[in-house]
């Protein structure tokens, strides 16, 4: 973990910080962005919510057209501060470029498989909501994404890599 960056965040951080949280499915991106948003008052955005819009509950989400996506994404990037979380995709490369810091959640894959399964069960029991229709097909798709995920993000000078819960809690407490 890059402790120099964490020290600069905690000692010199003004409310104007742009943070991109990257990681594969079930890595805790949404949880962390919510925690940091609550602590700092900085608005948090989910890449999937930017890229997709809610359709009827039977079919799930609908991908936004370029005419819908671009103005929304551009507006977020013009804010003085933001927290954006999601799997890094080419479509969001400008956010990575404009971010002050890129936090990469890089937990062991076995932990991520367990989290994905736990999330699926909670969603099926209606104990947790999701932006997609929970199904076995979606669960297996998440397993596939976790298996295939390789942390490859540009801008190494901005990166903070979190590999365990202790490092995660340290980051949250210093934010």
For this entry, give a set of tags.
single chain, 175 residues, alpha/beta, Rossmann fold, 5-stranded parallel sheet, two-stranded antiparallel ribbon, 7 strands, 49% helix, globular, disordered N terminus
Describe the structure.
With 175 residues, the chain is α/β, with parallel strands linked by helices. It has helices at 3-12, 29-40, 47-51, 66-78, 93-98, 109-124, 136-148, 165-174, and strands at residues 18-23, 44-46, 52-54, 61-63, 82-86, 101-105, 159-162. The protein has one domain (3-107, 152-174): Rossmann fold, CATH 3.40.50. The protein contains eight helices and seven strands. Strand 3 and strand 4 (61-63) form a beta hairpin. Helix 6 runs antiparallel to helix 7 (136-148). This is DNA topology modulation protein FlaR. InterPro entries: Cytidylate_Kinase-2, P-loop_NTPase.
């Amino acid at each position: 973990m890059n402790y120099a960056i964490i020290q600069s965040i905690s000692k010199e951080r003004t409310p104007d910080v742009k943070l991109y949280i990257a990681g594969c499915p079930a890595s805790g991106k949404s949880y962390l962005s919510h925690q940091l948003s609550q602590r700092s008052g900085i608005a948090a955005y989910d890449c999937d919510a930017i890229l997709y819009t809610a359709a009827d509950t039977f079919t799930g989400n609908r991908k936004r057209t370029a005419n819908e996506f671009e103005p929304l994404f551009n507006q977020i990037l013009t804010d003085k501060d933001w927290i954006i979380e999601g799997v890094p995709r080419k479509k969001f490369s400008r956010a990575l470029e404009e971010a002050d810091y890129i936090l990469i959640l890089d937990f062991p894959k076995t932990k991520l498989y367990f989290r994905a399964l736990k999330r699926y069960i909670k969603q099926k029991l209606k104990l947790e909501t999701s932006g997609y229709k929970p199904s076995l097909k979606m669960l297996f798709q998440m397993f596939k994404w976790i298996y295939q995920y390789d942390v490859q993000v540009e801008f190494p000078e901005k990166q903070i890599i979190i590999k365990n819960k202790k490092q995660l809690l340290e980051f949250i407490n210093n934010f």
